[in-house]
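Problem statement: downstream parser choked on a complex file, so we are re-checking the raw output for the magnesium ion run. The parser issue turned out to be on our end (a line-ending mismatch), but while we're here, posting the original submission so the record is complete.
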Amino acid sequence: MQLQKKICLLGMYSVGKTSLIERFVYHRFSDHYLSTLGAKVTKKSLQISASDGQQIEYNLLIWDIAGEETENKIPPSYLLGAAGAILVADLLRPETIEALPSVLERFKEINPGAAVVLAGNKKDLLQDIESDSKEILRLAHQLKLPCHLTSAKTGCQVDSVFSALASSLLSRDEANQVISPPKKKAKTRQAKDQKR
Ligand SMILES: Nc1nc2c(ncn2[C@@H]2O[C@H](COP(=O)(O)OP(=O)(O)OP(=O)(O)O)[C@@H](O)[C@H]2O)c(=O)[nH]1
Ligand SMILES: [Mg+2]
């Protein structure tokens, strides 16, 4: 079964949203910083097994959205219709972590039922992972959201954060019965049983 989903990468400027997408989709990284203007959409498919064993293919439309600034709010049309979001912070810039609750609030205002995961990025730059990841892990706990410590540079946990989002999309699709058990097979078996 194939399903198309819009997902958004959100968070302050220069936290590594574009770099995470580049790593996930094209397996590459650049140290060069080119700030995103507006939004850019990239496609990538991801396979996941539903709880009944059927293979689900999520065709992700990944929206890379420029970091919000006070005078430059994200247009609602960029967020509209999203099934999920990865909220990204730079582990070495506390203000980027502090910004996440309001980013989440704005995203959820427009997409109340959407799935959200957090990414604490630039893990490769940390000297003391335990102390430098405390704040984002505390926030994730408080917001009850999954959180991954990623590095777009090394690729560490990048696939995991996208997979975690896909798992949350799957749970929602199963709960909303968008993905239902393969009924045809059940009927065929029933018919066979009746014939016997
Ligand atoms: N060391 C390291 N640098 C990173 C990592 N991720 C991104 N960068 C660097 O951080 C800078 C900003 O990365 P971008 O991916 O452009 O950030 P962005 O969030 O898309 O920024 P805006 O488009 O302005 O909102 C670039 O110079 C990247 O090379 C990482 O995991 N580790
Ligand atoms: Mg960008």
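For whoever reads this later: The chain is about 40% helix and 25% strand.
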